[in-house]
Design a protein that fits this description.
By secondary structure, the protein is of the alpha/beta class. It contains 14 helices and 13 strands. The termini are close together. About 45% of the residues are buried.
């Protein structure tokens, strides 16, 4: 059976994009998207995945997202494929012309649903908040209309499942996203902590930096990809401007280098606000490394408090500082439990579940 995967953008490779690439590789599927960074895709280890652009979109929001939504709405592949997977939130409009379809939901569009108040307050200038409200209202209407064309909804976590019920009034089955556990290995518990995130304000990377400013004896390496829009560039520039000498920030590293960082870090930090699922903590555990994360969102579904790391009820500088010092005393003791926990999220399990749901 021929399969097509629809994903919003492939020019800023993060966890959602990696899920699509793994799906395409395992199902022999083609990916349809807008903007593509083929060099990044190749360096991520997916040189043979077929990716086609339905037309480029601008780099800046909201034009980037709105044009992507309309491009997918106008797409019609006829009878070229037997089944379709929607992998990106702004690609959901492709459901109108393509059946049978399955939407793998990483989260309902966060800036118009659960993160609407946060986004409005933190990232939208006061003079533009009225326009932002109109944009949010319009896209809520469009999203609800398009999901009526979705045949089956599958999501990455209980956290996302609850959001879907709350905001979209639909039920979704849970299939945790894939982690290529065979790629990860334990090297040593080195002298630096690792953080891997998109550089978006709700990931709260600035909190990590402020905590490490107070721990000059500790080192932190941040790998943070970001889109080229003004908002994302400004936050990335801010992160670089406040980092002390004991913090290194990289916008992109080759997959082999990233695996080496996982292998040799002392432990892993995640500070995102109400994370959908969170692939990177599972990747860290696959490398035998303890994780420090908030006790909310998807982290509660992956990190076992006191067993594979620490979940913090309060995510602030003091709590993060204390956790780094506590876990850092003996990070090696968490290794067996971390590696065992990561196996529950292996790619083989994910692919088997998706194939079953699609009647493969």
């Amino acid at each position: 059976m021929k399969t097509a995967i629809f994903h919003s953008f492939m020019d800023n490779i993060g966890g959602a994009e990696r899920v699509c690439l793994i799906l395409a590789r395992e199902l022999g599927a083609d990916i349809y998207t807008t903007n593509i960074d083929r060099d990044k895709v190749r360096r991520m280890g997916f040189p043979d995945v077929k990716i086609l652009s339905i037309g480029e979109v601008p780099v800046n929001a909201p034009f980037r997202h709105q044009l992507a939504l309309w491009r997918f709405r106008g797409l019609d592949l006829g009878n070229t494929y037997d089944r379709y997977i929607i992998g990106g939130d702004w690609a959901v409009s492709a459901a109108v012309n393509h059946h049978p379809n399955l939407w793998y939901v990483h989260s309902p569009i966060r800036e118009i649903w659960d993160l609407y108040p946060y986004t409005r307050k933190k990232t939208v200038p006061a003079s533009l908040r009225g326009c932002f409200d109109v944009w949010v209202h319009t896209n809520r209407i469009l999203t609800r209309a398009y999901i009526r064309q979705v045949d089956r909804m599958v999501c990455n976590s209980r956290n996302t499942q609850n959001r879907i019920r709350t905001y979209l009034s639909r039920d979704a089955e849970i299939v945790h996203p894939p982690v290529e556990t065979r790629e990860f290995r334990y090297g040593r518990n080195g002298n630096f902590w690792l953080s891997v995130n998109r550089l978006i304000s709700h990931k709260r990377v600035d909190l990590q930096i402020r905590a490490f400013q107070r721990m000059p004896e500790q080192k932190l390496v941040i790998v943070g990809s970001y889109e080229q829009s003004r908002h994302f560039r400004s936050y990335a520039d801010y992160i670089r401007s406040i980092k002390p000498a004991n913090v290194s920030v990289f916008s992109w590293v080759h997959q082999e280098d990233l695996l080496k960082l996982y292998a040799d870090c002392r432990g892993f930090l995640a500070t995102a606000l109400d994370e959908d699922f969170g692939l990177t903590p599972v990747e860290a555990m696959a490398a035998g490394k303890p994780v420090i994360a908030p006790a909310d969102g998807g982290f509660r579904e992956t990190v076992l408090d006191g067993v594979t790391g620490r979940l913090l009820d309060r995510m602030d500088e003091d709590s993060l500082l204390a956790a780094v010092r506590f876990v850092g005393q003996d990070p090696g003791k968490y290794r067996p439990a971390c590696e065992d926990r990561a196996r529950a999220f292996d790619t083989k399990i994910f692919v088997s579940r998706i194939k079953t749901l699609m009647g493969h």
